[in-house]
Specification:
- This protein folds into two domains: 162 residues, Aspartate Aminotransferase, domain 1; 245 residues, Type I PLP-dependent aspartate aminotransferase-like (Major domain) (Aspartate Aminotransferase, domain 2, 3-Layer(aba) Sandwich), CATH 3.40.640.10.
- Helices cover 40% and strands 15% of the residues.
- It is built from 19 helices and 16 strands.
- Helix 5 runs parallel beside helix 13.
- The longest helix is centred in the first third of the chain and has 20 residues.
- The structure holds pyridoxal-5'-phosphate.
Length: 480
């Protein structure tokens, strides 16, 4: 057992808890390589006393990734890839190698899929939204638990007279009732353009929606946009098994570094369907000022405005090597074990009068869910303890967690029981645009957000145990 497996100041109680944990998930021992990795490549966490529980917000990078990237930058002369001179060609080779590596990582055939470099997942989603050929009567279908960067696509479809429909998720599990899916898919306009977008994993509830929705929706006339941002850091997305038309992701969520680069991975026919609303340097084959005409470049180049982030892109190649050397299956297994233990131990916390301290908004088992757990704390009278209080107490203990609604208002509204009527009333009562504080006041008495914890690549038992002990301090607190 390495120091980071349990805790640097491991008490008899925490050792006992660790033994019970191991019994509950014996396979955890198979992931010991991740404890070694943490000691070797992420030692800054324990040296500085961090308990990092916000992997859904941002992944962490290993020191060795940075060393490899720094060495590459120090030893290479990089030119702008839009030329054919030697430094430019060298850069182009690295960019194209990374593109190829991304396809290999996701098991995507280059004859089926192309990779477009974007600034992040949001930018990839926007590229689809602004270019999708929505027309009057076309359909955009969304699940309630989409991230705002997917919700925003409704502004494009609205501008073209298309219709947006949301499929609710049902608390407490926060999954989509099967019957609703079938009726929603039947809305597809025959011969029209129909776009169905859902997260492979909700960044609110951790729910992993079934990937067989992709094919089932396509069979009913939908193009499918899969938001994979929260899924791919700890789960394998096999694009030889699943064939979404568009996939959006951010690389910093997978391996921490670099920030500022994401990708849209798209099937070639789906890419051809998109019409860019403008052109830019790099996206055209030819353009003329006097003739007032342009021809778009072929393939992914048509979607990469200006110069791609060619110094950071090779760090993605390195990051993918890193994940491959660690093994995504090991990461997945570890996350599953820790998530299951967290759910069991947090839901077991009861005040003296038997009332639960914690309510989890999402699945209560580790099946078909990822390592994101959203919850609220309640006092012994069942009143919610404000998430800001939890956050400020967590900060004092160097626990990094997330509070609010995590850019996922639909899931938040369903989980916290805020009705459409209440929301409409709040928005119409504020004539100058609602601020977050207005909103809190308006739905006074109800929680406006929650606490989110998430585990990832080098999370260990000590991290999760520390959080459960932190939660325990709110039991039967006077006035809490
Ligand atoms: C499910 C999901 N989609 C999209 C995004 C947006 O990612 P980015 O902020 O990197 O563009 C996030 C970020 O948290 C996310 O979790």
């Amino acid at each position: 057992m390495t120091t980071s497996t349990t805790s640097t100041t491991s008490s008899p109680e925490s050792r006992q808890a660790y033994e019970a944990f191991q019994k509950s998930c014996p396979d955890f021992l198979k992931t010991a390589i991740l404890d070694e990795l943490r000691d070797r490549d992420f030692s800054r966490l324990d040296q500085q006393g961090h308990v990092y529980l916000d992997y859904t917000g941002g992944g962490l990078y290993g020191k060795s990734q940075i060393e490899r990237h720094t060495a590459l930058l120090q030893d290479t002369v990089f030119g702008n890839p839009h030329s054919t001179n030697p430094t430019s060609l060298g850069t182009t080779e690295l960019v194209e190698r990374t593109r190829q590596h991304i396809l290999e990582f996701f098991n995507a055939s280059p004859s089926e899929y192309g990779v477009i470099f974007t600034a992040n997942a949001s930018h990839a989603l926007k590229l689809v939204g602004e270019s999708y050929p929505f027309e009057l009567g076309d359909q955009l279908l969304l699940t309630f638990d989409n991230h705002n960067s997917v919700n925003g696509i409704r502004e494009f479809d609205r501008a073209h007279g298309a219709k947006t429909t949301y499929i609710p998720v049902a608390p407490p599990e926060m999954r989509v009732p099967e019957a609703l899916l079938e009726s929603s898919w039947s809305l597809a306009k025959k011969g029209g353009h129909n776009l169905f977008a859902f997260p492979a994993q909700s960044n609110f509830s951790g729910v992993q929606h079934p990937l067989d929705w992709i094919e089932r929706a396509q069979e009913r006339g939908w193009d499918v946009l899969l938001d994979a941002a929260a899924f791919v850091p700890t789960n394998r997305l096999d694009l030889n098994r699943w064939h979404p038309d568009y996939v959006a992701l951010s690389f910093y969520k997978m391996f921490g570094y670099p920030t500022g680069v994401g990708a849209l991975i798209a099937r070639w026919p789906a890419l051809e369907k998109l019409h860019r609303p403008w052109f830019a340097g790099g996206t055209i084959e030819v353009a003329s000022v006097q003739a007032d005409r342009h021809t778009m470049a072929a393939g992914s180049a048509a979607f990469e405005d200006g110069t791609v982030d060619y110094l950071s892109i090779p760090a993605i190649d390195i990051g993918l090597d890193f994940l491959e050397s660690v093994g995504l299956d090991q990461i997945h297994l570890r996350v599953r074990c820790l998530t299951g233990w967290l759910i069991d131990n947090l839901t077991a916390l009861r005040h003296d009068n038997g009332r639960p301290l914690i309510q989890i908004f999402g699945p209560r088992s580790s099946d078909q869910r990822g390592g994101t757990i959203t919850l609220n704390f309640y006092d012994n009278q069942g009143r919610v303890i404000d998430h800001d209080v939890i956050e400020s107490q967590a900060n004092k203990k160097m626990i990094s967690l997330r509070t609010g609604c995590f850019c996922n208002p639909g899931a938040g509204e369903m989980a916290l029981g805020i009705s459409k009527q209440e929301l409409v009333t709040c928005f119409t009562s504020s004539d100058q645009g609602m601020t977050y504080d207005d909103f809190r006041l308006c739905i006074d008495g109800k929680s406006t957000g929650a606490v989110r914890i998430s585990v990832g690549i080098v999370s260990n038992f000590a991290d999760t145990h520390t959080f459960v002990e932190f939660a325990r301090q709110f039991l039967d607190q006077p006035g809490s």
